[in-house]
Specification:
Number of helices: 7
Number of strands: 8
Strand content: 25-35%
Distance between the termini: 51 Å
Helix content: 25-40%
Largest sheet: 8 strands, antiparallel
Oligomer: single chain
Order of helices and strands: HHEHEEHEEEEHEHH
Shape: globular
Radius of gyration: 21 Å
């Protein structure tokens, strides 16, 4: 009995020494102003239509900031000269699981309804090749489009936020130098009208739009890679 007690006391002592010796790592937060500077407005092949950097009216509502408590939310809007369609690129950054809840929050803030969201592999060479993303049609009165979103963090690229709490926790336990994560969302509208309501024609139209949206995403990340701080968003 005394031997067991001594072992327990020794273990408690060792844990106490370890707790004192290993100082908690302090992770500095980014500022939204820094994000606005590090994410370019100009994207080759697309015309800038609006930006939260120059137009405060494009910012998410205060309720979204309170719910997510992110480092910042940056939005860029463009027109595709080749097709005349509207494109939008949104980035949310943070290092807390609170910042990466169900993206329905962001879509709802802009009155979008998600239709049949599902996982697909999209080609974005600037991020290393094929990336898992959630892709869906989106709808609101008078408009229909296509959207995709994915996350980059200490565990790599994710198509949903479900794995991010585990990724962030493990990164903290392993005392990684960087535990920041980002949510990336891309929207294109209007969506292509299928030739018919058949599953084949609907999928054909979806693939056409997804190819166009993936091309836009690649253009955004390729431009980010050229920026001094762009690797913050593209290397996970």
């Amino acid at each position: 009995m005394q031997k067991r007690l001594k072992i327990v006391l020794v273990l408690f002592a060792l844990v106490g020494i370890a707790a004192i010796a290993i100082q908690p790592k302090i992770y500095l937060k980014k500022e939204e102003s820094w994000m606005e500077t590090s994410i370019p407005e100009e994207v080759p092949g697309y015309l800038l239509a609006g930006s939260t950097k120059s137009n405060p009216m494009m910012k998410m509502d205060e309720n979204t900031y309170q719910i997510l408590d992110p480092f910042g939310i940056v939005v860029r809007a463009y027109t595709g000269p080749a097709d005349g369609k509207s494109y939008e690129f949104t980035v949310i950054a943070g290092n807390s699981r609170k910042s990466f809840h169900d993206p329905q929050i962001c879509f709802s803030a802009q009155q979008w309804q998600l239709i049949d969201p599902g996982k697909r592999e999209v080609s974005i060479p600037s991020l290393g090749g094929r990336i898992p993303a959630t892709v869906m049609a989106i709808d609101k009165p008078g408009a229909r489009g296509i959207a995709m979103y994915f996350y980059g963090g200490p565990g790599g690229w994710r198509h949903s936020p479900l794995a991010l709490p585990v990724d962030l926790t493990l990164a903290r336990l392993m005392l990684k130098d960087d535990i920041d994560a980002q949510f990336f969302r891309f929207i294109m509208q209007p969506a292509t009208t299928p030739a018919s309501n058949s599953a084949a024609d609907v999928e054909k139209a979806m693939k056409q739009d997804l190819d166009a949206l993936s091309t836009f995403a690649e253009a955004c990340f390729a431009e980010l890679n050229k920026q001094p701080d762009g690797k913050y968003y593209t290397q996970h």
